[in-house]
Design a protein that fits this description.
Largest sheet: none
Number of helices: 5
Distance between the termini: 44 Å
Radius of gyration: 15 Å
Strand content: under 5%
Oligomer: single chain
Helix content: 55-70%
């Protein structure tokens, strides 16, 4: 079965999971990974994670055509030394790598649109949401 995506000028009516101008098919594949990030991390951590991912994406775009380390290195650096010490962090990290891989394979898909969507959802869920207790890797 072959799916084609025609660019749209607005999100799918009534579907908050499809960023403006993005293909519903790509959005349906990315959405589960956005949910993994939001469910694995506390609202504050999820917001920080999406902000740092947007920063990393922008840094990678800024250096396009030049020798560079790439998105993952910029994201890791932006998250700092405290990142990566829990299973929740590992889960969020792997979900972000999957999102990036899917979006890179889709013509005309915009990673920043999905990162902004994830950030918006993290901020919306952040008010009054209980935090998740991190489980250390190897515990």
């Amino acid at each position: 079965m072959t799916h084609t995506c025609e660019p749209t000028t607005a999100s799918v009516p009534g579907d908050p999971g499809v960023p403006c101008g993005e293909c519903p098919e790509v959005a349906s594949l990315v959405a589960p990974y956005l949910r993994i990030i939001r469910s694995a991390l506390s609202p504050v951590e999820a917001e920080r994670f999406f902000v740092r991912a947007l920063d990393a994406h922008e840094e990678e775009r800024r250096r396009d055509g030049a020798l560079q380390l790439g998105f993952s290195a910029y994201l890791w650096d932006g998250l700092g030394d405290s990142w990566g010490k829990s299973l929740a962090h590992t889960s969020a990290w792997e979900a972000m790598q999957a999102i990036r891989h899917l979006v890179r394979k889709a013509p005309r898909a915009d990673l920043a649109a999905y990162l902004r969507l994830g950030l918006r959802h993290a901020r919306e869920l952040g008010t009054g949401s209980p935090g998740r207790t991190p489980v250390a890797v190897g515990a």
